[in-house]
Amino acid sequence: MTETERYGEDEKKNGSDRVRLDKWLWAARFYKTRAVAAEAVHGGHVQVNGTRAKPSRTLQLGDQVSLRKGPYEYVVHVCGLSGRRGPASLVGQLYEETPESRQAREQVSRERRESGTGGPVQRPDKRGRRQIVRFMRRQG
After folding, report:
1. Is residue 43 part of a domain?
2. Which of 14, 21, 117, 132 has the fewest CB atoms within 10 Å distance of its CB?
3. What is the pTM of this model?
C-alpha cells in the first residue's frame, strides 16, 4: 500500500467530512503549529468564504479560504479535508490555489526582489548605535 493510499484511507475511516479551520491550516502546512494557526485566525489574517472566522469554524469541501502570511496573500479552495498532518508531497490534495492568487504572490515577490530593500549588511557597532540614538532623539 502506498503512502498516498494509506493517508487517504485513514481519513475515510474517521469519516471526516468536517474539520476545524485551525487544524486544517496546520495539516495543509500553512502554519508550523496548530497554535500559530489559531493565533493567525484570531488576529484576522484568515477568512472563510469572505467572512472573518474563528479557529473552531468547521470547513467543508468547496470553501474558499483567504489568508495573509507576511506580504503574501493566499486564496485557496478546499479540495480535501484532513485533521492529520501528512507528508508534504500530499498537501496539494487538500487545496487548490486560485490563479489570481498565485499571480499576485509572484508579483509581490518580484517587486520585493527588484526593490532590493534588504536589511543592513551587519549590525551597527558602538559608534553606529550612538548615531542611531542621536538621530532618534532629534526625530522624537
Report:
1. yes
2. 117
3. 0.73
Cα distance between residue 44 and residue 68, in whole Å? 9
Structural domain boundaries enclosing 29: 3-117
User: Is residue 134 a part of any domain in this protein?
Assistant: no
Q: Give the C-alpha distances (Å, rounded to integers) separating 104 from 1, 22, 47, 75, 93.
A: 39, 24, 18, 10, 22
Contacts of residue 96, Cβ cutoff 8 Å, sequence gap at least 6: 76, 77, 79
pLDDT per residue as tens, the chain (140 positions): 555 555 554 444 444 578 999 999 999 999 999 999 999 999 999 999 999 999 999 999 999 999 999 889 999 999 999 989 989 999 999 999 999 999 999 999 898 888 876 666 788 999 999 999 999 999 86
- What is the distance between the alpha carbons of residues 27 and 68, in angstroms, rounded to a whole number? 17
- The Cα–Cα gap between 39 and 11 comes to 26
Task: Count up the domains in the chain and report the number.
Answer: 1
Q: How far is the C-alpha of 43 from the C-alpha of 68, rounded, in Å?
A: 10
Proportion of the chain in helix, strand, coil states, percent, rounded to 5 = 45, 20, 35
> Residue 112 corresponds to which amino acid?
R
